[in-house]
Amino acid sequence: MIDRRTLLLGTGAAFTVAAHAGSITPAGAEAGAKLTDDGLHYEPWFQETFLDLKDDAAEARAQGKSLVLFFEQRGCPYCGEMHKANLSKPEIADYIKQNFYALQINLYGSRKVKDFDGQELEERKLAERWRVNFTPSLVFLPTDPAVYANKSGGDVELWRLMGYWKPFHFLGTFVYVHSGGYSTEPNFQQWLSEYREKLRAEGKDVSLW
User: Can you give the CATH number for the domain in which 180 is found?
Assistant: First the structure.
């Protein structure tokens, strides 16, 4: 797990647009932005639940979907860019809606969340427990109770996306998880390269940036 996080930190830095910060729209400034009472950007297909992760995983499993938690915070420009540039694209939003059970967590929020091991704590404490330090961070979790039983989600996560990634890499992450690519190729960059060539061989246009 540590190796994956180290890899993610490196790849996340590669795809984050920090070098072009001037091109990022300030959070909430884009037209039509939907914000929660906490000031977080929000998608209508985010699930509203009691945040009992075992129950959420069971529901995702029953629907044949994967489970993902979006960690965001108020005033986060890269969260805003993720919603504006990525989640606004029908091909991305539709893929996530069809294949993922998505929850949103406020990095500094106070709502109660029950972890897989039964421990109940506030959103911000869950983030600390799972060592989520960046926003946006997307944590992909198992839905098989044999995997997460009596364990914290941070110890059994399948994959983690940290920071803002451009649309192709962002969508690729969801395909990577839902297809089980992480279990056969732990090197995401290698998997993504092969996935890109597969799409091109099928005659599909691939725009990396």
Answer: 3.40.30.10
What are the tens digits of pLDDT across the range 76-114?
999 999 999 999 999 999 999 999 999 999 999 999 999
207 in any annotated domain: no
CA angle 92, 60, 73 (to 5 degrees): 60
In this prediction, residue 209 carries a pLDDT of 63
CA distance 196 to 206: 7
In the chain, how many domains are there?
1
Residue in 159, 117, 119 with CA at minimum distance from that of residue 139: 159
Question: Residue 70: which domain range?
Answer: 2-201
Is 193 a member of any domain? yes
CA 59/CA 40 separation, integer angstroms:
24
Task: Find, among 127, 171, 177, the residue nearest to 153 by Cα.
Answer: 127
- Measured distance CA(4)–CA(13) in Å, rounded: 14
Residue 23's pLDDT band, with cuts at 50, 70 and 90, is very low
